Amino acid sequence: MMSEEIIEQEKISLWQQIKEDFSVPKLNDPAFDSNFDIFFNYPGVWAIINYRVANRLYNKGFEKLSRAISGISSFFTKTDIHPAAKIGRRVFLDHAIGVVIGSTSIIEDDVLIYQGVTLGGVSLNKGKRHPTIKSNVVIGSGAKVLGNITIGSNSKIGANSVVVTDVPENSTAVGVPARIIRKDAKKDKLAHNELPDINKEMFKYLIERISILENSVKKEQDCNCDINEKNEVLEKEYNDFIEALIVNKKG
Questions:
Q1: What does the alpha-carbon distance between residue 241 and residue 238 come to, in Å, rounded to a whole number?
Q2: Cβ distance 151 to 163 under 8 Å?
Q3: Torsion angles phi and psi, residue 235, rounded to 5
Q4: Is the peptide bond prior to 177 cis by the omega test (within 30 degrees of 0)?
Q5: Nearest Cα to 9, choosing from 62, 86, 112, 113?
Q6: Neighbours of 159 (CB within 10 A)
Q7: Quick count: other Cβ atoms within 10 Å of Cβ 128?
Q8: Who is most buried in 15, 103, 133, 218, counting CB within 10 A?
């Protein structure tokens, strides 16, 4: 079902929506310099504005015309947004190149989406088959959010992650497939450098495990280290790390 936020934003005139879309880069891009930049350096803004026009036409029954507008927009902005998608207010596509938003996607207010993101489907069946993105979500570059799943409000999706299950609100999802880390209190939309690197942690564990096993095999040599003690410390670190990762397999 269409969220209350999307229903509310449809009461705003098209011109009011476009004016608001033009103001979004000032709030989300530290590189923003002047309104002149918007006309030449922000394809994401134009992709959203073109979508607004196409969506209004689509909802009034002019499906072919709306698809034509979407096609022209896609050619110039390198961004593919289906006119049937539901997009709320102050949504910003930063750089935007390569963004794909499927027909049954729902994006609520104040969402930040980086280049190369796909909101795609995993089924050929009719009906809701694309994601629902709640308010204040940040989706990192190259991420794939697939299927009829929900990304909870204030959550972050790490760059190049593949998300195929629901993400609770105030959470971070990273990896392939994405694993969910709860209790994310970070509010900075641009703090991508603070997202955990799951692959790095797993490789670190494996390397240390191999080192312990090698020392165990060579224990006849002079070794002053306590292998059992090191193994217990490593096991504790590994278990603490795994407990921090909650894979949401529902829905």
A1: 5
A2: yes
A3: -60, -40
A4: yes
A5: 86
A6: 16
A7: 16
A8: 133
CB-based burial of residue 118 (10 Å sphere; 0-12 exposed, 13-18 middle, 19+ buried)? buried
User: What's the rounded Cα separation, in Å, for the pair 112 and 190?
Assistant: 10
User: Does the structure show a pLDDT above 90 at 247?
Assistant: no
What residue ranges in 108-241 does DSSP mark as E strands? 112-114, 118-120, 132-133, 138-139, 144-146, 150-151, 156-157, 162-163, 172-174, 179-181
In this prediction, residues 126-137 reach a mean pLDDT of 92
Going by pLDDT thresholds of 50, 70 and 90, the confidence category of residue 11 is low
Please give the model's pTM, rounded to 2 decimal places. 0.72
Identify any residues that bridge with 33 across adjacent strands, giving them in sequence order: none
Q: What is the bridge-based pairing of β-strands 144-146 and 162-163?
A: parallel
Exposed (0-12), middle (13-18) or buried (19+): which is 192, by Cβ within 10 Å?
middle
Environment class of 195 (CB within 10 Å of its CB; exposed 0-12, middle 13-18, buried 19+): buried
SS3 state of residue 119: strand
Cα distances (angstroms) measured from residue 125 to each of 3, 82, 86, 139: 22, 17, 19, 26
DSSP 82: -
Q: Is the pLDDT of residue 249 over 50?
A: no
Token pair listed for 39: 């006309």
- Which of 66-75, 81-90, 217-226 comes out lowest in average pLDDT? 217-226
Question: Does the structure show a pLDDT above 70 at 200?
Answer: no
